[in-house]
Amino acid sequence: KGRSTRVFTASELGVDTLAETSNNDEDLTQLESYETTVLREIIARPNLSIKGLAKRLSEELDQVIVERTIARLLEKKQICAEDKLNMSRTSMIKTVKLIGTEIQLADLRGARMKAALGALQAAGGEMDVDDIKAAEGPTIAAALKRLEKKGLVSFGIRENRSGAQFESLPGQKQAFTPNDQQQNALDELNKGDSHTYLLHGVTGAGKTEVYLQAAANVLAQGKQAIILVPEIALTPLLIGRVKARFGENVAALHSGLLSSQRVQEWRRIRSGEVQIAVGARSALFAPFDNLGLIVVDEEHDDSYKQGDGVRYNARDLAIVRGKMCGCPVVLGSATPSLESWTNAHEGKYKLLVLSKRATPRPVPKIELIDMRGLPPNQIIAAQTTATLRAAFDRGEQAVVLFNRRGYAPSIACPGCGATFKCPSCDVNLVLHQRSHKLSCHYCGFYRNYSPDCKACGTPFDIVGYGTERVEEALKVLFPDINIGRMDADTTATRGAHHRILDDFRVGKTQLLVGTQLVAKGHDFPKVTVVAVVGVDHILNLPDFRSVERTFALVTQVAGRAGRGQRPGTVILQTRHPEHAVFRLLSHPELSNSDEIFFQQEHRQRRILRFPPCNRMVLIKLESVKREKLRQNAHNLTKILKQKRARGIEIMGPVVAPMPILVGRHRMQIILRSPDLKAFRSWLQLVRPILRSASKDGVRVSLDVDPKHLM
Predict the structure, then answer these.
(1) Less crowded by CB within 10 Å, the N or C end of the chain?
(2) What is the residue-averaged pLDDT of the chain?
């Protein structure tokens, strides 16, 4: 059974109204400010109830104001209301069982009771109540009650353990003969010591096979295992491989499942029906009582960090749970985070190295293509085109990576200079050509797109490119080739991720274009060419981890090439071929290029006092009132500096690199210290000050060990 909840979405009029509203809250009346704040939240997070909206806005508006504001927005037709049915989350099912003797049943009178009796006997004596109601009609419930009073039936409950019908990709059970390095890693893991291991293996080194062998050893001892992947999109692939090895002895746990599915999977784990849990961050909390192994695959990935609500890094929390349960924790990656690399070299983690691929093929070399001097609208270089064409002519496949979705990041009118910015985030709206929309990727605001400027009639100039435009350019270059695209837009519907990868796996598509989703975990033996297009925008981000992210992404996607019988080639297009990270990646003679990179990057971080050489805390302040935010930020910084302990550095306050997000102005303060113990003690001391700073409509939040500073 379910009950309905009223939820709200923005109307076209509401979107248009917000587009014309000032970004500065001081320019609005109080009522206009309330309406703008609530409207922005509804656009950013559609289908929230009044209770949900009030919770989101609790530090700015009380529930009464939210309710009155919603009433005004409904009256103005700027939002729409819908009653949404909420299905019960319980996995308990009511049953009815036949318990009367044959003599008692023979004396039974009453047509409806006899109908109930016949249905139960036909079903073998027991049925779910919902099933018998569906078969005999809802009025059968009264007949069942009369049968219960006569002592002929009894009601009970059972757990629904049918298992969530989650998406999984087919996997093949393969005979596994470990090489020397894999066997050394397994020997170490099979000791069962409660250590943290960094499994540093090149792409294609067989890290997943090591995970599965270690899990098999744990299961043979009657224990359980958790395997984490950084993104929900990667779970079908891994679940397919785990199922091929262990059958149905696996549960999936991640937020992409329906709530009822998550409850079912959670109950299957708790009841002992399954011994392996696979999933994203939330799988770490699987209710196993005899945990023998935790694996964190692609441990370097930023997706392991929970960015809002209760902030935590699932990788670090996995280590904590491993210590609590006395089991080994494996952090696996071809490009470990600099933090994990440092911990391994300082002896905090045990380092396990897989320096060669499981197959005889070497890691492919990376060829740099200098895009300087080429027209800015030339997406694919001639050399890239020639290499791709040669691969297709040989019957091979290719992957093209561009890590920005949409058609183009902005448009502009050459006639009158008009541009489109998000009124809530002050960033350019991204053009999505297929849906004819200009969208904000931060808050969800959108405008309908037409190719000509409404003000002067001039056709818009399209500036830059995204995966849609890259796909379009490739279709012009290779009209005879079937091309697939995988990004957040094409995988938004249920089953789309499975379909795109399956089409590529069976050869229905020969070229796969996509964002970083194509770079992780996939094994396509026929892929021999990988082209990395437009990687410069990642390198140029104003963040101290941008070089590390560039190195990791290029290395990961390069590993998709040459995994079969034929050697692979990786092409990297850049306008910065002289950058140290690209020079290092393009030198195949340096077999330890990753080690050289880590040493160079660690040296720079130490000079600049950035993590992992220093620990860092980012204090984020947000408010719709810019002046109030500025005052509170400066006051908080002043108080913290008065309380500052030795070795604690306080920087700021400064306006955040993204100064406005969902209508809230943003500032930040950075704290850092080389002494973790002293840092923790001081943070405990100033904790009441930080808590009391959230007032007057200013939100204050702490991000410990931030993954980015945007």
Answers:
(1) N
(2) 88
